[in-house]
Write the structure tokens for this entry.
Amino acid sequence: DTAVSQTPKYLVTQMGNDKSIKCEQNLGHDTMYWYKQDSKKFLKIMFSYNNKELIINETVPNRFSPKSPDKAHLNLHINSLELGDSAVYFCASTLGGNEQFFGPGTRLTVL
Amino acid sequence: AQTVTQSQPEMSVQEAETVTLSCTYDTSESDYYLFWYKQPPSRQMILVIRQEAYKQQNATENRFSVNFQKAAKSFSLKISDSQLGDAAMYFCAYRSKDDKIIFGKGTRLHILP
């Protein structure tokens, strides 16, 4: 069984479109995250939710809006996509002070 | 703000040899966690090893061990008996009390047959 899953794994879209990436974890974790990994492999946190509440919101354009319908899901919606949004987006989850479990990543390409 | 520095963008090691990847961090906290993650070409992020700052004993996981020097804020990863499957990007990460994880820029490790 997949612990942290993301859909889709690949997403190719035109500039200006709106898209969503979904994330689900079946580990019973209470905290979920979104990270962006750029072309230089630098991994940066974007958002963190604990029990459906936003607790970390880094300096991210407000075109990015996370939504947590329940503590097992954290979706990422992106409006008006730009070329610079092309990256791999990782979802992760954790329980307490333990390590984060990562999803397989979603490679977003904006044309 | 906390920072994590990996000073070696790339390293190579002969198969079966030992290699050490360095990581330093900066923090004013006394209680935190440190991690090493591996990212192979499949891009999956895989936890290699974890260290709690309050523990003086260095963590080990089979061929992987760390040298944790809290006063020096250093957290290096030693890989013994390197195998071809160890080739990957390795990220050092710091987890702060407010649950934020900060990653270093990574070290790409090549294993030479």
